[in-house]
Amino acid sequence: MIIGNFPWVTNSQQGLIGSENLPQKNNFQNHKGLEAITGKSNFDISEWMLIHSIQWLQKHEAYLAMLCKTSVSRKLLNYIHSQSLNLAYCATYKIDAKKYFNATVDACLLFCKFDLNSQNYFCDVFNNLNSNNYYQIGYRNNTQIRDVISFDKLQDLHNPKMGLKWLSGIKHDSSVVMELSKVNDIFTNGLGEVVDIEETYLFPLAKGSDVAQNRTKSLNRYVLVTQRCTGETTEYIRDLAPKTWEYLEIHSEYLDSRKSKIYKKSFRFSIFGVGSYTFAPWKIAICGLYKKLDFRLVGKMDGKAIVFDDTVYFLSFDDEQVASQIFALLTSTPAIEFYSSLIFWDEKRPIKSSILNTLNLSALAKRLSIDL
User: Fold this and answer.
1) What is the distance between the terminal CA atoms of the chain, rounded to a whole angstrom?
2) How far apart are CA 67 and CA 100, in angstroms?
3) Are 175 and 188 a contacting pair, CB within 8 Å?
4) Which pLDDT score is estimated for 41?
5) 23 C-beta neighbours (distance < 10 Å), count
6) Bridge-partner residues for 158, per DSSP?
7) Which residues contact 119 (CB under 8 A, 6 or more apart)?
8) How far is the C-alpha of 230 from the C-alpha of 74, rounded, in Å?
9) Residues 6 or more apart from 227 whose CB is under 8 A from it?
10) C-alpha to C-alpha distances, 345 to 259, 284, 293, nearest whole angstrom
11) What is d(CA 359, CA 158) in angstroms, rounded to the nearest whole number?
12) N or C: which end of the chain has fewer CB within 10 A?
C-alpha cells in the first residue's frame, strides 16, 4: 500500500514492518522535546478530523456528534481547552464497540454544542445512551481531571510541588539478552541458551505483572544491570566480571542494534532508568499498565535489591520503617480516592508518574491525623 503525504501521520507510524515508504511527519500540535518523539505525539486520524471540524465550527452555533475512541474525545477536549476555543457543552455516551463493530476498544458517542460566546471546558460522561447518571471531566490548575466532583472533595491533597518523585524501572530494549531465568541455579536467556556469568551485575527482576499480582517475594527472573547510574561507562565490567563482558560482546548484535535514540550516544551496552535509587533496599511499587491501584511494599531478595522493568513506577527507601509508613498512607482510602479521581482507566497505561507525583503526603498525613 502506498501511503500519501498526509498531515495527520506522526512519529507513531514508524514503519512497523520495516518499510521505507513512509509519509512526511508533521508535529502539528507543537509538542516539544521528548513529547514530540514519544507516545504523547501519537494520535488517530479521527482526532485530526475532529480538530479540523471544531475549527470550522468556531464561528457558528452548531452541534457535532461522532463515534470515536474515548481517549480521542478527551484529547479533543484538551485541544479545545489549550486553544481557548468556544464550547457550550460536551458529553460522551459509552457504547459497546465489541457488540456493534466487533472492535475491542473503549468507544463513545461524542456530542458537542458550540456557540459564539461560551467556553465551558467540561464533559459529562454517561455510561450509556439511556443513563441519567454521569461524572464530569473538567480542569483544575490547567490539568484535566477525570472526576472533578470527587477531586474537589480532596483537592487539599493535590500539590505536584510537594509530592514525592516516582521513578520508572529499567529500560534495556533487549529482553532476550539482558533478562535471564534461573531454575535450579542454572541461568538461561531468552534465546534458550545456558548462561554462565558472574552474578555481580545480576539483580532479581520484578516485571509489571509480578508487581500487579503480588509476586515479589520469590522471583526466578534476573536482569543484567550494567551501570550504577545513567551515563556511566560500562568498560569496568571487562575487568570486574570478564565472563559477563564476554557474554555481552557475543550478543552485541542484539544490543548494538537497539533503535531507541537514548542508546545512540551512550556507552556500549548501556541501559536507561538506573541510579542510586535502583539499589535501595526498600521500595513501594505499582504497575502502570493495570487498571487497579495496587501498591506493593518490596524488600530485598537473597541480599540483593529487587529491580523493576519500565512498566513499573516506584519510590525507594533506605529505611524499612519509613517505607512502611509511606505505604500505609498510599493505601489509605483518601489516597485511593484522590488518585481515582485523576486516572482515566481506559488508557493503555492508566497509572502515570505525572499523576502519582501530585499527591501531597504531608497534607494526606494531616487529614489522617498521622505524624510524619
Assistant:
1) 61
2) 12
3) no
4) 47
5) 16
6) 359
7) 84, 85, 86, 87
8) 35
9) 234, 267, 270, 271, 274
10) 30, 21, 10
11) 5
12) N
pTM of the model: 0.83
State the Cα–Cα distance between residues 276 and 358, nearest whole angstrom.
23
Give the position of cell 518523585: 165
- DSSP structural state of residue 162: G
Q: Using CA atoms, how far apart are residues 166 and 361, in angstroms rounded to an integer? A: 13
Question: What is the amino acid identity at position 139?
Answer: Y
Task: Report whether 73 contacts 110 (CB < 8 A).
Answer: yes
CA angle, corner 14, sides to 8 and 19, nearest 5? 115
Three-state DSSP at 315 gives strand
Distance, CA of 254 to CA of 247 (rounded, Å): 12
pLDDT category at 365 given cuts 50, 70, 90 is very high
Tell me whether strands 307-308 and 179-183 are parallel, antiparallel or unpaired.
unpaired
Closest CA to 228 of 278, 267, 178, 264: 278
147 three-class SS: coil
Element (H, E) at 145: strand 143-145
Mean pLDDT of all residues in 351-372: 93
- Cell 522471583 identifies what position? 219
Closest CA to 340 of 324, 358, 323, 327: 358
Say if strands 307-308 and 202-206 run parallel, antiparallel, or are unpaired: parallel
Contacts of 208 (CB under 8 A, 6+ apart): 287, 288, 289, 290, 308, 309, 311, 312
Handedness of CA 153, 159, 162, 165 (dihedral sign): positive
| pLDDT, mean of residues 251-271 | 91
118-176 pLDDT, tens per residue?
999 999 999 999 999 999 999 998 899 999 999 999 999 999 888 789 999 999 999 99
Calculate the CA 18 to chain-centre distance.
26
Q: In whole angstroms, give the CA distance from residue 43 to residue 181.
A: 37
Question: How far apart are the C-alpha atoms of 7 and 19, rounded to whole Å?
Answer: 19
